[in-house]
Each structure stands twice: as structure tokens, then as C-alpha cells.
Specification:
Layout: H1 14-21, H2 23-28, H3 30-36, H4 41-50, H5 68-81, H6 83-92, H7 95-98, H8 104-110, E1 118-131, E2 134-141, E3 152-161, E4 164-165, E5 175-181, E6 185-188, H9 194-199, E7 203-206, E8 216-218
Parallel strand pairs: 1-3
Antiparallel strand pairs: 1-2, 2-7, 3-4, 3-5, 5-8, 6-7
Helix pairs in contact: 1-5, 5-6
Amino acid sequence: MTYFAGEAGTEDSPVLHAAIGLAEQIREASDEIETGRRIPQSIATAMKEAGVFGMVMPRAWGGPELDPFTQIRVIEALATADGSVGWCAMIGCDSGYVSAFLDQDVAREMYRDLLVATGAAATTTGEARRAPGGYRVSGRFPFVSGCHHCEWAWLGCTVSVDGAKRFDGNGVPETRQCFLRLSQCEILDTCAAPAATISSSAMYLSRRSTPSVSRTRSS
């Protein structure tokens, strides 16, 4: 059976039904979203409880592992109510994707709560300095959509040793995609672009005192 945006059948995932059920609450918050330039915490909490941010988490962990088409329907239902909410849902559910690139014991430790959101700035604007057990991350990471309500920050960095960037045999900078807890970052509300207005974006500043990070993957 074919369904229009914001519709679901009895055979569809509870996550999709829950997302559709949030439409009125989201529409009522549209002015707050616009003036605040971010998703209100009440909406972010409702999305988390609905399973939106955890919809990609693997069944082996107890997650729903929704198929890609259903994921799109969930995002579509939210975006129909408010485009920025749909965007942040798409970014926030990256938890289930990026965790697949990590050692699974480490990933499971990181995502004990399968419902949390992950913010992302994968462009390699930061620095990852080699340190015992991993890397020490610093830098500024612009346009981290959903950063106000995520648990983990997925941040792109170039690798340096003793202050010098590392390059491979082809002269390409060595990079890492690093994961930091939100508590290890400072949010700088510097974004004034229209894209920031509709996507709850801001700039992350990774503190230089950040402990060594071993939860990384090569890009």
C-alpha cells in the first residue's frame, strides 16, 4: 500500500507512528524554533522518547534498525511539520551509522542509551594530536546541527605530531573522525546564516584540555 507523507499503516514501525504523532506539537513550536534558532528541549526530548534518534541502532543491540526507506518516512513526517526538525532528525540518527565504524565493544559502551542523538561536523577543521591511548582533540567545528541536544559530537580532524601535520605517501593529510561527549565541548553561538537559523546549528570549540580520545576512525 502507498502512503502519503505523515501517514502509516498498522504494519509500520512504532517509531514512524510516534514521529507522525509529534506533528501537532512541532507545529505549535514553530515560532519558538524560528526565534530561538534551535529545536526546543521539549521537542528534542519528545523525539528521543519516540525513538527517532535511535531508529538506526542495530537489532543486535536491541535497537529497531529501521530500513532506509522507513527512516526516510520518519524524517519526512517530521520535516512536513517543520523542516528544521526533519533536518536535525536526519543528523541526530547518525548514531546508528557512525557506531558501525567503531570497535563494537567501544561503540556499545559509548551508546549505552540507544536513543541519544549525535551531532556532526565531519569536515576536517580540527586537530587530533597523537597522545597515549589515542588523540587529544582541539579546534573549532562549525555548523554542528542539533548540538544543543546531542550526547556525542562526531568531529573531523587532521592528525598532527609535535605540531606538524602528518601526510600519507601521496601527500594527502592524515585524518581522523573523532567522538567527544558534548560535555567535553563548548558551544559558541556564532552562526547567523539562514542555514543555522533553520537547523539548530552552532560552532563547537573543543577545549584543549580534552582528555585523549581513542574512539576514532580513519577517514
